[in-house]
Amino acid sequence: MATAQDLVVVRSRRTANPARTLVCLGFCGGGTGQYHQWGDVLPPEVDLAAICYPGREGRFLEEFAEDWDALAEDATQAVLAAATEGPYVLLGHSMGGWMAFDVTVRIERLGGRTPEALVVSSANAPSRGLTPQDMFPAQQDTDEQLLAWMTMHGMMPDHVLADPDLQELALELMRADIRVRDTFHYVPGARVGVPLHVLTGAQDTVIEPNAGEQWRELALGEYRHDVLPGGHFYTPEVWAQLPNRIPALGGVFSTS
Q: Which residue from 50, 126, 124, 121 is spatially nearest to 88, judged by alpha carbons?
């Protein structure tokens, strides 16, 4: 029987004696499902978990977070719960990249178990602040525009597209996340001491040309930046194999 914690920390892969767990934080409008496919490509000694935000999946009956701070606090407690089972690497994509950075900063300040490495995917450095470039999809987008964006990025399975009620729920979730994202604020001086690995897409028009240098300023320790083929979600092939691009999952952190 699932516990309350199981609904927050969704573990889609468990091994007998894991060396570490890849813990994933969702992007705008997303859930945990987009990460489950990685269970087949992870190193054999690595488990997989994703954090479920309020208002979706097993937490459907909960209210959506009201703002960024509320969601970040919820995510911080969830990651700390996941950390009780051993070493972990924390990953966030897009809005989840900022969330993963913020959560790591909060855990370091609390003195909790920090990740072995922080992996930020497809996100500009938060120190530049929230700009219109980062605010996509946007609050003013129509339902049709949001549905098209979610469909293009693989967030709308066929059974959702075929059901108007499920489409409405998906749109509600997306708009809730957009409202939270648009309250993001960078705390001046916030940096992380854990190894920081930044991934960006070569054709991602959202990412600034000097994003790597900006992220480097936020890393007190080891740092690497890899540019991958494709746009904001890379190519489908790269996304499906993304864990293979993360050396920290094998217990090493190379800066080259």
A: 50
Hey, how many other C-beta atoms are within 10 angstroms of the C-beta on 202?
A: 12
The model's pLDDT over 96-143, given as tens digits with 9 standing for 90+, comes to: 999 999 999 999 999 999 999 999 999 999 999 999 989 989 999 999
DSSP structure class, residue 248 = G
Rounded to two decimals, what is the model's pTM? 0.95
pLDDT of amino acid 255: 81
| C-alpha count within 13 angstroms, C-beta hemisphere, residue 229 | 7
- pLDDT recorded at residue 253: 93
- Is the distance from CB of 72 to CB of 106 less than 8 angstroms? yes
In this structure, the dihedral spanned by the alpha carbons of residues 67, 72, 74 and 80, taken in order and rounded to 10 degrees, is 180
Q: Which domains does the chain have, with CATH numbers?
A: 4-242 (3.40.50.1820)
Query: Is residue 13 classed as helix, strand or coil in its secondary structure?
Result: strand
Q: From residue 129, how far is each of 37, 56, 59, 118 by CA, in Å?
A: 32, 27, 30, 20
DSSP letters spanning 143-157? HHHHHHHHHHTT-S-
CA distances from 19 to 13, 107, 116, 197 (A): 13, 21, 11, 19
Burial class from Cβ neighbours inside 10 Å (0-12, 13-18, 19+) for residue 132 reads exposed
Intervals of the chain under pLDDT 70 = 1-2, 256
Quote the CA–CA distance of 137 and 145 in Å, as a whole number.
Answer: 8
The pLDDT, as a whole number, for residue 1 is 56
Please choose, from the candidates 63, 83, 71, 101, the residue with its C-alpha nearest in 3D space to the C-alpha of residue 198.
101
How far is it, in rounded angstroms, from Cα 230 to Cα 17?
35
